[in-house]
Design a protein that fits this description.
The complex is a heterodimer. Chain A is mostly helical. In chain A, about 90% of the residues lie in helices and about 0% in strands. Chain A has two helices and no strands. The radius of gyration of chain A is 19 Å and the shape is elongated. Chain B is an alpha+beta fold. Chain B has a domain of about 150 residues. Chain B is built from three helices and five strands; from the N terminus they run H-E-E-E-H-E-E-H. Chain B has a five-stranded antiparallel beta sheet. The relative contact order of chain B is 0.12. The chains are: A mainly alpha, B alpha+beta. Chain A: Keywords: Membrane, Transmembrane, Transmembrane helix. Chain A: This is Cation/multidrug efflux pump. Chain B: Pfam families: DUF1523 (PF07509). Chain B: Keywords: Membrane, Transmembrane, Transmembrane helix.
């Protein structure tokens, strides 16, 4: 019993670290792309304010994708592994 | 000389990673099972090649425990012995907890030499008699004959995922360098250039001053 709890705790820590890393990476690339877009289309106004507004929208859609990718998919993988090793 | 050291280091790291993957990823052998038994086994300095003491097959101490074994023979007659232990919940990530069932299946699949029943044993680990370590059998599946071709799908998927992971880590590092480190380096370089320019100006002024005092006229 304690083994399962330990595995879950370790998995949670590792997956959260991945989530954090991926979030920083995707936000950074998105910000860079937005800055280039601002300059390419020669928009007027405050660049940083526009970038921040766009990043807020992006943050919401990113969270959904990342939770699915980082938490749900590995759990599905683990369930498949357990099935194929023990019950197939 | 440094080039050799650098490349030697990289090749060593690569060999270690390859050996680790070869140990942990599943392999399948086509064998004929000849017997199953369990035996009180000493697990000493080679304990990293055995299940951890709390993995569930035994709650006993580290050094001596009852381990199930599966004996088998290759199509060419060579022997092979697998152990059959539960894996822990953490590493290696097989989540195997049905070793008793597996032992029953293996005993059911025992066949004599003149009427062989070939099975594919999925296992991980190495058989190194010198260290008394055995691979851990994970699954047994009957196959049609000793020459069936088995494609290692799981290995392919895992290695592709690992490759993607390495690629992502490399991209993340490149992005971090471009957005965080390089601007800081540029600032640092600009600051150093400014300090250099001031030092040169001060040196020229000092030369002028001393030159006027002590220089030849």
């Amino acid at each position: 019993m304690i083994g399962i709890l330990r595995a879950w705790l370790l998995g949670l820590v590792v997956l959260t670290a991945f989530y954090w890393l991926l979030k920083i990476y995707f936000r950074s690339t998105r910000r860079e792309r937005l800055e280039k877009q601002f300059e390419a289309e020669a928009m007027t106004g405050d660049r940083d304010a526009w970038v921040e507004a766009q990043m807020k929208d992006y943050g919401r859609s990113l969270k959904l994708k990342l939770v699915w990718l980082v938490y749900i998919l590995p759990m599905i993988g683990m369930a498949l592994a357990i099935y194929f090793v023990n019950y197939d | 000389m440094w080039k050799y050291i650098k490349w030697g280091f990289r090749i060593t790291v690569l060999i270690i990673v390859a050996a680790f993957l070869h140990y942990t990823l599943p392999q399948r052998d086509i064998v004929r099972i000849t017997g199953t038994y369990n035996r009180l086994t000493e697990v000493g300095a080679n304990s990293i090649f055995y299940a951890s003491p709390d993995s569930g097959t035994t709650t006993n101490t580290v050094d001596r425990r009852d381990i199930r074994f599966i004996e088998a023979a290759y199509p060419d007659g060579g022997p092979m012995v697998y152990r059959n232990e539960d894996t822990g919940w953490i590493w290696p990530p097989y989540f195997k907890y049905d070793s008793s069932n597996l032992q029953a299946e293996a005993t059911n699949a025992i066949s004599p030499k003149d009427k062989p029943e070939w099975v594919a044993v999925t296992h991980y680990g190495w058989r190194l008699p010198i260290f008394s370590i055995y691979p851990n059998a994970v699954k047994i599946k009957p196959v049609a004959g000793p020459d069936v071709r088995l494609i290692p799908w799981v290995n392919i998927v895992v290695l592709v995922l690992l490759g993607l992971l390495v690629l992502m880590l490399w991209r993340m590092w490149a992005q971090f360098k471009e957005r965080m480190i390089e601007p800081a380096m540029d600032d640092l370089n600009n600051t150093l250039d400014a300090v250099d320019a001031r030092a040169d100006a001060a040196r020229d002024r000092a030369r002028g001053f001393w030159g006027r005092l002590f220089g030849r006229k």
